[in-house]
Amino acid sequence: MGSNTTQNNGKYEQDCQFLRSYLSGKRDVNKQNIVEILIRRNSQELKLICDTYLVLYDQVLIHVLSATQWNNQLARVAYLRLSETQDRDAGIVRRSLFDGSLNINTLIEILCTRSSSELHWIKQAYCSHYDSNLEHDISLKVRGGLKESLLAVLKSSRNHNSKANMSMAMCDAKTLYEAMESGKSVDHMTMISLISQRNTEQIKSILISYKQLYGCEFSKSLKRTICGQFGKELRIVIRSIQSPEKFFAKQIRMRNSDLKEILIRIIITRSKIDIKDINDVFATKTGGCLENVVRREFSNSKDKDNGIVADILVEMIKGF
Questions:
Q1: CA 184, CA 197: separation in Å to the nearest integer?
Q2: DSSP state of 101
Q3: Which of helix, strand or coil describes residue 225?
Q4: Pick from 298, 266, 270: which is nearest to 74 by CA?
Q5: Residue 81 to residue 268: CA distance in whole angstroms
Q6: Are the CB atoms for 207 and 235 separated by under 8 Å?
Q7: Distance (Å, rounded) from C-alpha 135 to C-alpha 88?
Q8: How far is residue 221's CA from residue 235's CA, in Å, rounded to a whole number?
Q9: Beta-carbon neighbour count of residue 256 at 10 Å?
Q10: Looking at residues 278-296, what average pLDDT do you find?
């Protein structure tokens, strides 16, 4: 037992030395070692590497990476891989709200694809790191029906310990239908209230029940003219909760100017969760695969680290 512990400690110290050399700008660093660390180490091992780095160098590794991540894509990959999940997501949300113009797509990417339990911890991390309430900041920066919908999703995380109940889901589906058929306009307050009181697993059960009862997806019902702009915005949120893999695949298909960042963020945050499903949806829609997109996007730069970033992302797509 003692021998194994010593060997493991030595491994983590060596990993720290490789990372330290890379971050110090040494040219003779074998970057394949960095690739191995970021691909092969599990979440517990990555945490131990951070702990060991602090002991060895009296520096918080995440802080060191944070200072360079926007000028170095390999450092960005390392930052996202080594960060605690809730801290990472809280940081992504904060940047989408306050770094220049509001980035609605990135905001939806986090708030509408995470479980209520994950949202609970993201809210805690957000408050801890930024001394601010996430719901307050959403109210401050977002407008219209989208603000109402996102706040409802955040409030639903208060019920993160509740289990899905299909009997209740049937009743809730009827409530949604009645709100849809309430008259000349939809009863959007009832819809928002219901979403805010049910966690994401229960919302998914409600959506299944709605289709069973009425023969169509709730999200399609929201396309009706009577739903107006509110329906369009709520539909985005509902579809993202119901089928996150479709949302992520669409984000990549849109080929925005920040596609490299989108690829890094989605592939790392969805690794070992639903990245294979995202790849399948992407392939169905485009006839191509995420690996080809990654290779293309990261091959047209003079930055030699881009090839290494591509290797890491491709391995993560494959499931390393």
A1: 26
A2: S
A3: helix
A4: 298
A5: 7
A6: no
A7: 18
A8: 9
A9: 11
A10: 96
Predicted TM-score (pTM) of this structure: 0.92
262 neighbors 251 (Cβ within 8 angstroms)? yes
Contact status, residue 150 vs residue 107, Cβ threshold 8 Å: yes
Q: Where are the alpha helices (DSSP H) in 24-98?
A: 31-40, 43-57, 61-68, 73-82, 85-98
Report how far residue 96's alpha carbon sits from residue 99's, in angstroms, rounded to the nearest whole number: 6
**pLDDT value for 1:** 47
- DSSP string of 247-278? HHHHHHHT--TTHHHHHHHHHHHTTTTTHHHH
Structure token pair of residue 242: 């119901």
CA angle 196, 188, 178 (to 5 degrees): 100
With b for 16 or more beta-carbon neighbours within 10 A and e for fewer, the 282-316 pattern comes to: beeeeeeebeebbeebbeeeeeebbebbbbbbbbb
Rounded to whole angstroms, the Cα distance separating 275 from 90 reads: 21
Closest CA to 278 of 260, 257, 251: 251
pLDDT of 3 higher than 60: no
The overall average pLDDT reported for the chain is 93
Convert the pLDDT of each residue in 68-111 to its tens digit.
999 899 999 999 999 999 999 999 999 999 998 999 999 999 99
Tokens matching residue 146:
């989208």
CB–CB of 153/119 below 8 Å? Answer: yes
Measure the CA–CA gap between 186 and 182, rounded to whole angstroms. Answer: 6
For residue 204, what are the contacts with CB-CB under 8 A and spacing of at least 6?
A: 164, 241, 242
Q: What tokens appear for 104 in the block?
A: 């609605």
How distant is the alpha carbon of residue 289 from its chain centre? 20
Encoded tokens for 7:
């060997």
Contact between 126 and 90 under an 8 Å Cβ cutoff? The reply is yes
Residue the block writes with tokens 């080594």:
82
- Tell me if 76 sits within 8 A of 66, measured CB to CB: no
Length of the chain: 320
